[in-house]
Design a protein that fits this description.
about 290 residues; binds adenosine-5'-diphosphate; 6-stranded antiparallel sheet; alpha/beta; binds magnesium ion; Rossmann fold; Calcium-transporting ATPase, cytoplasmic domain N; 7-stranded mixed sheet; 13 helices; Heavy metal translocating P-type ATPase; 2 domains
Length: about 290
Amino acid sequence: AIPLVVAFSTSYSAKRGILIRNRDAFERVKDVDAVIFDKTGTLTEGKFGISEVISQDIDRRGLLRLVASLENNSEHVIARAVVEEAMKEGLDLLPATNFKAHPGRGVTGEVEGHYLAVGTPLLMEELGVKLESHFLRKVRELEAQGKTVILVAIDGKSAGCIALSDRVRPESYEAVRELKAMGKRVIMLTGDSEEVARYVAEELGVDIFMARVLPHQKVEKIRELRSKGLKVAMVGDGVNDAPALLEADVGIAIGSGTQVAVESADIVLVKSDPRDVVRIIRLSRITVGKML
Ligand code: ADP
Ligand code: MG
């Protein structure tokens, strides 16, 4: 039988947009030592706008058209922003063949007979694309302003980059502050660059962050913390976060995120408000206190 107070808490929280999918996890969440947040779409809105397109040896519109044609095959929030921008600028998209998604790194494929690669420096390195130092300096400069930058290679040669801007959720400030005040360790993991990670972490007062974390490394990080005896909650929104949500003592999904994340989570924040992590911990404390 479900203790009455738990049943009450479940409906109380559901009315406030916090969905408890696993009651044991709800009872556990009061004891977590660390709360790990994904960055994009979790602490930030994950709604990207294009802020700059830099092209080398090809015109700006030509580059955007090729990249959008490839990204049209990807579900990633970055991909959607690029396609949207191309549409807004009246560009016709072309079909892509041999499309491949490289999780946490980017996408590759062929458009108009050209082999395209769009993504992180690691993806470029894996494909043997040389990046000039003055170009990388410009990329770092954009990232230091908090912009996510994706690199573009055409036929194995660096052809430019696209800078995208996201917005920190206004609710994230209070969420981080309150969790720290409760004595929880707050950690941010992201597949994005060191520069962007530092920008967001400093903005929010997150002391510990890791950048360029590949999806399987998020799981490893949680395993590492748990092996030290820490109880860990993971908060994420993406397909890439699903394994980490399952690995954590308590997996918490952002409601506006992907279905896969929601299905992998113990608790769902329907309103996509990171402050609800604080609320659910408090509610767990009160509820479990009453059961004892
Ligand atoms: P996060 O952990 O921030 O949610 P991801 O693991 O999904 O990010 O992606 C990490 C990085 O990989 C992105 O910042 C981006 O540089 C690159 N990337 C992923 N998917 C794409 C894509 N479809 N197009 C271009 N770059 C991508
Ligand atoms: Mg994310």
